[in-house]
Each structure stands twice: as structure tokens, then as C-alpha cells.
Amino acid sequence: MSLRERKAAKKKEDILRSASLVISRKGYHNATMEDIAAELLMTKGSLYYYFKNKEELLYRCHDLILSEAMKKMEEILSQEISSAKKMEMAIKFHLEVAIREKEIFNLIVKPEQIFSKEHLGEIVEKRAEYAEVFDRIIDEGVSKGEFSIEQKKMARMIILGATNWVQVWHSPEGEYSNEKIEEIYAAYLLKMLV
Amino acid sequence: MSLRERKAAKKKEDILRSASLVISRKGYHNATMEDIAAELLMTKGSLYYYFKNKEELLYRCHDLILSEAMKKMEEILSQEISSAKKMEMAIKFHLEVAIREKEIFNLIVKPEQIFSKEHLGEIVEKRAEYAEVFDRIIDEGVSKGEFSIEQKKMARMIILGATNWVQVWHSPEGEYSNEKIEEIYAAYLLKMLV
DNA sequence: AGTTATTTTGAATGCTTATTCAAAGTTAGT
DNA sequence: ACTAACTTTGAATAAGCATTCAAAATAACT
Asked: Which domains occur in chain B, in start order?
């Protein structure tokens, strides 16, 4: 890859990070292309040199963050540890991402309100894959006898709902540290499973 | 109250219901004043006869629905039943509202992205009051020895998060009935508390 | 240092919507 | 039936933003 190509790739990623940041702060609809560009001391026109339009940009943000998270989840899944331990790690990691990426990761909650058909399918699919990580841990735990859960789908919904919601109330100045929150959530949600 | 006043009051409420509906379907930013009016076979101009502007309209929607829900919660609180039973009822009722009012009740998740200062305070306060219902049940249950929970605030966050999240995935065509969902959620979340 | 391919710019365009308002239509109460 | 007060209308206004694009600036390579 030439120097130019590498520079362009870096710029693309810079833009994605900036977009994530601005969208986290203001929400998708209030984050203007100008805001995103300003964060990088660029002008909005330039963004269109790298991305077709705003939707494309958001789609790439979403994809980047979800892919990174997915990689980590795969790693947790493949470890040689108890299902309870896996679930604990998955919950903690998921909370970490949810807190860090607020808007992007969660609040694109009604993707059909934002994305056009081409992207929608991929997004829904990718999210389903991610959610499946939790299903797999639950299944494994149940068959090993570690968990006792009849309604596995609902259990997963409760876990993801509870953890996704964190970013609604979380504030960096809150009285609990992120680690503390992760500890408590993991403990209480595991209590529900066993 | 004169006939005219009563008619105007009814129209106001009709508009609020229509707005709730449209906003539920499309989300706040995609619900136009025209959509809201069209639902009632009116034109958007008329809406301004009843409400100052879109924000005011949304604020009133929010307020109406939350007030109704709050009334019911007070009633649950005052009954002579076990704390576990109260929590069960509160969870079930909350789910009912969350499913019915989707957007309005929950997805105004970042009120500061939508509301101006005047309304923001009242909204935050009213939501805090509502959340407190759950705190009170938890406190009561702990002191009666029915629940064993150290981190009461976190337990409440988990419960509200899990239940609020329902509207993200819920579909009327889903394989579970609302009642079934309510049953399972209440059972699993109570398991966490006791 | 010069040439050519990239990047960036910012002004112009156009679309979507909220909001206003004067005029037209409707209604409750006499 | 009349009329004064109330409602509705729809066309006009205005603001905010995404998107385009021709021209200017910059950088890589020889």
C-alpha cells in the first residue's frame, strides 16, 4: 500500500472516530456533517471525498465498533473456563463497550429509522450474531448444569436490555466506577441465571 | 366548562394520542407535524392553535403518559401485599406501558437532545419519581427480609433497563404474547432479588 | 524544481420541515 | 336565522442541513 493509500486509510479511520464521538455527544440527528468535520479541523466538503454520504459514514462507524467488539467476544467464547465465568466476562466487556460507545452501539435502536435497505440487512444480521454470543454461553451453561433457565431467549433479552440501558444513565462523574458497575451487574445477572 | 372548552380539551387529547402514535411509529425526528395532523384528518396549521410548537406537543405527550402510569403505580404501592407481589405487579405493568407507548415512554432517552431547558427539569424530575417507585418496593422488600440486595440502586437500574429494552425488540407478531413476556420477566427479575 | 494526481475548500443548491398568518369556514348560544 | 367568537386552512416564510462541484491548494514522485 502506497503512502497515499495509507494516509487515506488513516484519515478514514480518523473520520469514523470523530463521527462516533460527535454522534455519542449529540445523537445522530443532531450531529451535523459540519460538527464531525470541525472536530478534525476539516470542512464538511472533504468528508464526501471519503464517504458517499452521512448514512454511509454512520454505517461504517457502527460496523467498526461492532466488529471490534465481536472479535473480543469470540475470544471469550473460546476460552477454557466455566460458563458462569464466560458470562461474567461477556457482561463486563459488553458494559465496557456500551459505556464507551454510547450512541453508536446502542441507540441506533431503531435502525430502520436511520438506515436504508442496503445496509439494514447487514446491520440486523451483525447485531444478531453479537447477541448470539450470549445465547451460546447460556446454552452451554444450561447443558453443563451451571445455569437453570427455561426461557433462554428471554434471559438473553434481560441481560442485554439491562446492560444496554447503562449508557442511558451512566455519567463519568457518577458515584460508581465503571469497574464497580461491571462487578455488580455481572453478579446480579448471574444470580438470575443459576 | 362550556361545550366549546370541552371540545377543545378533547381535541387536545386527540392530538396527543395521535402524536404518540406517530412518534411511536417513526421516532421523534421522523414524525412531522404533518404526519401527526394527517392521522386526525387535520392540517398541520391547526396543531399550532392547540400547541405552541412541536416540543410543547411532545412534552405534553410525555407528561400525559407518565402521569397515567404513575397513578397506577401509586395504587400498586398502596396495596396490602408482599413486596415480591408488588414488584411483580410493577414490572408487569411497566412492561405493558413500555410496549404500548414505545417511543414516548422510553426512547426519549436523551431528553437533553430534544427538550429545551424549561421542560427538561420537569421531565427529569418526573422520571426520577417514577423510578423511585421501584426503589421503594426494593427498600420495603429488603427491610421485610423478602429481598436480599446490597446494591439497591443498581438492582433498580437492572430492572428498569431490562424492561425498558423490551420495546426495542418487541413486535406484535412475535412468538410470545405480552402476558407471557410479562410473566417471564417478572419471574426472572424477582429471582435476582430474593 | 516541475508535473501530475490527490485533497481540501467554501460557496451554491436543494430539500425537508417547523412555524406564521391572514383569510375563510364553522359553531354555540341568542 | 344571526352573529360574534372560535377553528381550520393552505400558502408563504424561514431555518437548518446534506450534498455537489469547480476551483484552489497540497503533496508524492521523477
From this structure: 1-51 (1.10.10.60), 55-193 (1.10.357.10)
